[in-house]
Amino acid sequence: MRRNRSLVSDIALLSFLVLSFLCIVFIAGAPDDYLQNIIILTVAFILAIVTYFTTVTAGLVLNLVFIFAYGFYTMYQTITLGETISLNTYFWLIMTPLLTVVLWVFTLSSRDLQVENEQLRKKTANMAIVDENTNLRNSISFQTDATLFTSISTRYQIPLTLLVVKVKYWKEIRRIIPEDQLAEAIYDVSQLSQASIRTNDALYLLDKDEATWGLLLFTDSDGAKIVIERIKLKLQELNDNNFSRKYKVSLGLKIGAVEYQAGTIENPLDFIVQAKKQLEYDV
After folding, report:
1. Count of domains forming the chain
2. DSSP 263
3. 179 and 223 in one domain?
4. Which domain of life is it from (predicted)?
5. In the listed set 98, 127, 156, which residue is the last one of a domain according to the structure?
6. CA angle, 144 then 149 then 151, to 5°
7. 25 part of a folded domain
8. How far apart (Å, rounded) are the C-alpha atoms in residues 197 and 62?
9. pTM tops 0.70, yes or no
10. Is 153 exposed, middle or buried (0-12, 13-18, 19+ CB in 10 A)?
11. What residue numbers bound the domain in which 179 lies?
């Protein structure tokens, strides 16, 4: 299907170029009507461009107006001046709508390809398990890993705790930090969280737009409190040493933690929801 659309787009573009070449050859072969032909060619291109940026309906309506006006002008010359209808008239009455239609076909095919490419890009982004800027596993990877981690926790009676870390006032901070530095700011905070956990724990970027991370820790609630204090301490160091100077803003975090209980947590998404509820108590 995509190949057919691409072929139609290529044929339409080639046809437009061929028609334009024919117009140039026709104008060069009629030097006596050079000025008139140039004016009509300009009008034909304007109608085609209008169609490109609007719709085929608008282009065809404008072509009908042109045909009517040009026909009226030809009829006036025939009746009042006694001139015969020349080849110019037939040529432009056919060529002008053709240019519009061919360019519309090219536009339609190109837009279909653009829409399809955007859908494929979004689909690829949704299927990716690693964020391209931070190299952190995302929410899709979290759901897969959380299922495995909870199974291990249940089977071997190992406590498992999920920490959800969120930047305070992120919407306001996004207005302060330049757009090209947002990804770098998220990466810096990710490194802060990564440095606060053990190698057998896992860090996930759950929501880039809301600057929210998830940390799966093989520890109980008391052990999670130690990690929380460690993150807050490193955050203070980051604000004092680098972040506030680099981005002109001090960073604050809200951290919520919930220990896994098989009877109360049904699935990975429920795990995240319950951990996010704990953010309300961290002010």
Report:
1. 2
2. T
3. yes
4. Bacteria
5. 127
6. 100
7. yes
8. 67
9. no
10. buried
11. 137-281
For residue 3, what pLDDT is reported? 59
Structure tokens at 183: 């990804």
d(CA 165, CA 130): 18
Residue type, 213: W
Do 173 and 167 form a contact (C-beta atoms < 8 A)? yes
Helix (H, G, I), strand (E, B) or coil at 235: helix
- 129/106 Cα distance (integer angstroms): 36
Structure tokens at 264: 């109360």
The string of pLDDT tens digits covering residues 257-272 is: 999 998 889 899 999 9
Amino acid (one-letter) located at 62: L
Flag whether 178 is in a domain.
Answer: yes
SS3 128: coil
Distances (CA, A) of 241 to 50, 159, 235: 56, 35, 10
* 7-23 pLDDT per residue, tens: 777 888 888 889 999 99
| Domain assignment present for 146 | yes
| The 137-138 sheet, strands edge to edge | 137-138, 202-207, 212-217, 161-167, 253-259
